[in-house]
Design brief:
Elements lengths: L3 H17 L5 H12 L4 H19 L6 H22 L4 H14 L51
């Protein structure tokens, strides 16, 4: 099983890669991805390049408002491909991080929006934060936290 940081990197890589489709950053992102996947042989890099080109055409030809839907459909596919690459070539992690940062910084502001999906099942509790901090304090069952922790006040009205 891959470490969470590597899994997150694959997700960030997929998001950056598909986010670059149909933007000025596309050729650089595509070249970086082909170089990464080319570690498995030139034929593999060429095949990945062809797949990227096909996927980019889908984004470019999308009806108004449809490009984001196509990107969302492509994201898990490219995340899985990048995870497999990182499993086969763990030494490619630094190069992928560099590619993500280069693409991310060059994307237009509207493409720098990152999506986070969270699911809680059964009787679980889910806490999620993107780009910030989460402070959670749980009191004992049936008890309220001390007055100074309620609503950030001293408990007086």
């Amino acid at each position: 099983m891959l470490a969470e940081s590597v899994t997150a990197l694959a997700g960030a890589g997929a998001t950056a890669l598909i986010g670059a489709m149909a933007t000025d950053m596309w050729q650089g992102a595509r070249s970086g991805a082909v170089r990464l996947f080319g570690r498995g042989g030139e034929a593999r890099g060429d095949a990945i390049g062809a797949q990227l080109d096909d996927d980019a055409v889908l984004v470019v030809r999308a009806e108004p408002g449809g490009a984001d839907e196509i990107r969302e459909e492509l994201r898990p596919v490219w995340r899985r491909r990048l995870l497999l690459l990182l499993e086969e070539h763990p030494d490619s992690e630094a190069e992928l991080r560099e590619l993500v940062e280069r693409v991310r910084s060059g994307l237009p502001a509207e493409r720098q929006v990152w999506v986070q999906s969270n699911t809680a099942r059964d009787h679980s509790t889910l806490f999620a934060v993107q780009g910030g901090n989460l402070h959670y304090h749980q009191a004992a069952d049936g008890q309220l936290p001390p007055p100074d922790e309620q609503n950030g006040t001293d408990g007086t009205s």
